[in-house]
Each structure stands twice: as structure tokens, then as C-alpha cells.
Amino acid sequence: MTAPTRILLADDHALVRRGVRLILDQESDLTVIGEAADGAEAVELARADPPDLAILDIAMPRMTGLQAARELNRRLPALRILFLTMYDNEQYFFEALRVGAAGYVLKSAADRDLVEACHAAMRDEPFLYPAAETALVRDYLDRARAGGDIPARAVTDREEEVLKLVAEGHSTREIAELLYISHKTVERHRSNILQKLGLRDRLELTRYAIRAGLIEP
């Protein structure tokens, strides 16, 4: 018999993790080997004991699911990644494609779609909820035919990491330690972010981070 798919589950809400685990534990070929409360913890757990599949929320403290997915792709290229999210919008869907997600599942339909998405990911097949297939993929193809591109990102991956941590209230020293960079580098990134986004201070930066889904209000 084939060994069960080993799954790492990351969501900052314990009740959500519990509910998702109940869904997955009913399947004999799926097993949850670890739970993380944020993206940074998910990366740490995956490095210590690589799973076959990571199921990530998008909005989480310290490191979002999208940021964690980029890091996991760099460190564990064979890892399959699914996003389980409440966000039903184009921005997050296209960003999920950018970071190499195998599937995008809405929390509102997890009881119906999540198991199927896990199986599809392990077959190297994409899984998208029906509205994404009919609307978002069509929009993407229309952009491609017109010679366009998927929506551009205003900041770099590293700037996004700094932006999120600043908005969460971390000091320059704490950000430097979390990202393994110097204090001067943190300040340079912060200055670049404010200039690129046309923001003046931490308050405006925090409001932007909330609108961008990097932190929850």
C-alpha cells in the first residue's frame, strides 16, 4: 500500500486548524503531521520534517502564507502547496499562481473541496474552485492574448516581508533578527517601501498592509 500523504497545516486560528484536521483525518490516505500558527513556523517545521503537502492560510502573523510559500519553494522544491483561504479575489489568486500553488480552496467550501484538492495536488494536477476556473482563468487568458501580464506587485518579496513586520509593530532590531539582515538594511527597505507606495509613516503603512491582506485588521 502507498504511504499516506504527509500534510503540514498552517493557519493562525486554532479552531480552523481543528476543523480542517477533522476533514483530513477521515481520509485513510491523508495524515496531518504538523500544525503551524503562522508562516514562519510553517517554514521551520517543514525544514525540520519535510511534508509532502503544505496547506497554508494567506493572512497570518510574522509571515503570510504567500511569503511562506515562496520560501518553501526555494528550500523544498518538491513540496506541493495548497492555499485554504477566505479570500475570493483576483489579487490573491494570481499571487498564489506566482508562488507555485497547486490549488486554491475557499474555506467556505473546505468540507466539499479540500480532500479533492489534496488528491489533485499529489497527482500534480491543479485544483481551483469553480468560480476561479470560470472567471479568473478566463481573465488571465484574455490578458495573455492581449499581450498583457498578471497584476504587477508594487514591492519586492523582501520589502513585503519588512512591510508586514513593521505593520505588526516589530522594531528595527526585531525585524533585523527575524530576517537575518542588518539594521541599516531594514531601514533602507522601509524607506524604499514608503517612497514606492507614497506613504508617510507607520500608521499609513499599517493601513496599506491591512488593505493588501498582509495583516488582519
Automatic annotation (TrEMBL):
<dbReference type="InterPro" id="IPR000792">
    <property type="entry name" value="Tscrpt_reg_LuxR_C"/>
</dbReference>
<dbReference type="InterPro" id="IPR039420">
    <property type="entry name" value="WalR-like"/>
</dbReference>
<feature type="modified residue" description="4-aspartylphosphate">
    <location>
        <position position="57"/>
    </location>
</feature>
<dbReference type="InterPro" id="IPR058245">
    <property type="entry name" value="NreC/VraR/RcsB-like_REC"/>
</dbReference>
<keyword id="KW-0804">Transcription</keyword>
<dbReference type="InterPro" id="IPR001789">
    <property type="entry name" value="Sig_transdc_resp-reg_receiver"/>
</dbReference>
<dbReference type="GO" id="GO:0006355">
    <property type="term" value="P:regulation of DNA-templated transcription"/>
</dbReference>
<protein>
    <submittedName>
        <fullName>Two-component system response regulator</fullName>
    </submittedName>
</protein>
<dbReference type="Pfam" id="PF00072">
    <property type="entry name" value="Response_reg"/>
</dbReference>
<keyword id="KW-0805">Transcription regulation</keyword>
<dbReference type="GO" id="GO:0003677">
    <property type="term" value="F:DNA binding"/>
</dbReference>
<dbReference type="GO" id="GO:0000160">
    <property type="term" value="P:phosphorelay signal transduction system"/>
</dbReference>
<dbReference type="InterPro" id="IPR016032">
    <property type="entry name" value="Sig_transdc_resp-reg_C-effctor"/>
</dbReference>
<keyword id="KW-0597">Phosphoprotein</keyword>
<dbReference type="InterPro" id="IPR011006">
    <property type="entry name" value="CheY-like_superfamily"/>
</dbReference>
<feature type="domain" description="Response regulatory">
    <location>
        <begin position="6"/>
        <end position="122"/>
    </location>
</feature>
<keyword id="KW-0238">DNA-binding</keyword>
<feature type="domain" description="HTH luxR-type">
    <location>
        <begin position="148"/>
        <end position="213"/>
    </location>
</feature>
<dbReference type="Pfam" id="PF00196">
    <property type="entry name" value="GerE"/>
</dbReference>
